Amino acid sequence: MKRVGIGVIGCGVISGAYLTAAKGFPILDIRGLADMNPAAADARAKEFGLKAMSVEALLADPTVEIVLNLTIPKAHVAVGLRALDAGKHVYSEKPLGVAFKDGKKLIERAAQKKLRVGSAPDTFLGGAHQTCRKLIDAGKIGIPVGGTAYFMCPGHERWHPQPDFYYQKGGGPVLDMAPYYITDLVNLLGPVARVSAMTSMPKPKRTITSQPRQGETIPVEVATHAAGVLEFVSGALVQMSMSFDVPAHRHLPIEIYGTKGSLVVPDPNRFGGEIEFAAQKDKWLPLKTELPYADGNYRSIGLADMAHALRSRRPHRASGALALHVLEVMEAFDRSAKSGKAIAITTRPERPAPLEESLVRRKLAA
Length: 366
Ligand SMILES: NC(=O)c1ccc[n+]([C@@H]2O[C@H](COP(=O)([O-])OP(=O)(O)OC[C@H]3O[C@@H](n4cnc5c(N)ncnc54)[C@H](O)[C@@H]3O)[C@@H](O)[C@H]2O)c1
Known about the structure:
By secondary structure, this protein is of the alpha/beta class. The protein has helices at about 15-20, 40-50, 55-60, 75-85, 100-115, 125-135, 170-190, 300-310, 320-340, 355-365, and strands at about 5-10, 30-35, 65-70, 90, 115-120, 145-150, 190-200, 205, 215-220, 225-230, 235-245, 255-260, 260-265, 275-280, 285, 345.
């Protein structure tokens, strides 16, 4: 299969994980790296033996078919629209955008131009999450009744060198971390119908403790603690809490409850992890992860699936429609908190097709 030319825009922290994992997916032909800060592109180009170029040159390069957009969240839609207008497909880091209306504009522009949009997260394609999907689809837990989803930490100013964007409009724990959780939940349970939530901002300022800006105080513009309930179209109800204000807790990332048993789903920010099942109280059993891509960093598998999909003219799994739905659900947290009402979700993406082992081995890795 002819390789697909990829141009990367945004060469910050996460670009290292992509460029490392991309080496495992031969379909991906990284043609060049660009950043509004040319020094960032130069540094990654040197590190990975690739070519640094300006954003303009990358968008004008006819060998670039997909722009991999690894810029910060509030730049995702603007950079994505520029790429579409240059005739490129786009695969974006999460979230798709910081507002549903902007994400919708991106998807509509792509449809007009007959181009594709893909989006992170792609961790739901990891072996552990695909195994959970297979178990639920096979009826292991009976009828899904509900579940829980928790991400709570003390904030990213402990480790990220430039943590400002996490606390500015378009940041916060829901837009930052819920994409992993909601995408995995949609993979497991189907789309969301309604959201009811409340949010808070306990600290209006944060002090950076990472280098190089240790001791600097940054303002907080968004809610940093959120609790809500997602009602799925299937009828399942999932409680969710996302926070940058919690030093410690004892909840598991995702649990799914069904009429015949309960499933512990591993951390959706990772590709692998322990799966456990219990049909009775306190009788938890580990279950084997059956599918590959569960034992490391595969951040770019969603892009590789999109590249293969492009060549074989099939739908890709980490799709713009899925990411737009996730964005609508995330925005509903804020809308529900502000209005005091449950918010109906209008988008209804297809559940992404499961990854089959044979397909994974033959097509993505070969
Ligand atoms: N850091 C992580 O661990 C992590 C993990 C998963 C996902 N992400 C996501 O990846 C994205 C990037 O995060 P990061 O941590 O790499 O951020 P970062 O700040 O380290 O890097 C972003 C880069 O994009 C560049 N940039 C910003 N706007 C641009 C524009 N308009 N045009 C060209 N370049 C532009 C910046 O100069 C910077 O080099 C975010 O959406 C984030 O949510 C980050």
